[in-house]
Amino acid sequence: MIKLINQAIAFASSRVFESITLLFVRISLAGIFWRSARTKVEDGSLLTINENTIYQFGDEPFNNVPVLNGELGAYVTMYAEHLFPILLVVGLASRLSAAALLGMTLVIQIFVFPEAWWSVHMIWVALALVIITRGPGMFSLDQFLAGKLNKTPA
User: Fold this and answer.
1) Which of 35, 42, 47, 137 has its CA at a distance of 20 to 30 angstroms from the CA of residue 154?
2) Where is 94: in which H helix or E strand?
3) For 48-65, what is each residue's pLDDT tens digit?
4) How many domains in the chain?
């Protein structure tokens, strides 16, 4: 029984298990922002922003956001919420993508929905920080490209 427990602990501590966990963390964070991005576009379109999104970004509480309020904020947010989740899922520029989504989360927390820390934003911050600190894991393009770049020609 002790041997079985030690084997389970060894597997849970392995690079493969950590990479599987990091993949799930990347997909989880990406899914949150992807679903938000899709609410900002016209039904049936890929990146055509809907009028409601532009209206929302010009209205309370979004107009509290410095610089990125109004139409500019709507477009920047919509594009960022599409780009960074895609990069996270494939594991390309993962730390940068997680940092960008962390920044978006902090802007939302501070300027838009300050009451949502315990219910929502704390989880988003935790997911982003895991990716930023641990990296994307071995199941990522970042890891694949790092391996290709580190190989010296024979």
Assistant:
1) 137
2) helix 94-107
3) 999 999 898 888 777 778
4) 1
Tokens of 104: 């978006």
Give Cα 152 to chain centroid, integer Å: 33
Domain of residue 103, residue span = 28-137
pTM for this predicted structure: 0.89
Domain assignment present for residue 142? The answer is: no
How far apart CA 60 and CA 8 sit, in angstroms, is 51
Give the CB-side neighbour count of residue 154, counting CA atoms within 13 A: 0
Contact 119, 113 (CB under 8 A): no
Give the separation between CA 47 and CA 110, rounded to whole angstroms: 27
Q: How far apart are CA 93 and CA 84, in angstroms?
A: 9
Q: Is residue 123 part of a domain?
A: yes
Whether residue 12 lies inside any domain: the answer is no
Q: What is the pLDDT of residues 21-35, one digit of tens each?
A: 999 999 999 999 999
Give dist(CA 147, CA 112) in Å, integer: 41
Q: How far is CA 141 from CA 21, 27, 40, 127, 131, in A?
A: 16, 14, 28, 19, 14
CB 93, CB 142: distance < 8 Å: yes
